[in-house]
Amino acid sequence: MIKTKERIVAAALQLFNEQGEANVTTNHIAAHLGISPGNLYYHFRNKNHIIARIFLQYSEHLRQSFTPLSGSMSSGSASPAMWFHYLDATFYVMWEFRFFYANLNDILQRDPELHQQYLAVQQELTLNLQALLRELNQQQVLIIADAEIAPLTDVLKMLVSFWVSYQSAQSLTPHISQAVLYEGVSRILLLLKPYFHPELGLELSGLMAHYQALSAKPSDPFHK
Q: What's this model's pTM, rounded to 2 decimal places?
């Protein structure tokens, strides 16, 4: 049986994603679960406390998914499975925690402790991504000047961190669908395209076609 605390976190994540974090209160979460506000406050002091618990899930996903895979390129080239692992993980984190990306600055500004945790996780992610790019460089999958690895990492992180909020700002009636996020994933490949080894052009084209096709699919009415 799922514990009440876990149900509260799951319900909050669902409502934040569907309705926007700023539009959801603890009373909304309690009503959604059919429990009293007092029962919710027994487990969480306030909404920020709930968000902090969701952030633990977010940070754990980043650690598990973006640590360079040992042995993934031992044969001297990056396999398609390795690319799909990282790109699908990127899509997952943007989709599963899209409320966080949509309202990132506001959430962090009102919770300095969470902001510190976020910065620590981002620093860890930066080191992992730089290590991954260096490994791809060593295997001649990418050809990146050493001096460009750090700024390229920053640009990749920037794209992922602000793709949701950027897309939301492009419409008076924003709707972040899975297709919109797959479009963001295809932009990652577009950024990396100039650095791909010439012999891997066909592999890159196949990856880009895959994610571009996903971005062109109609929105799933059950995954808004």
A: 0.87
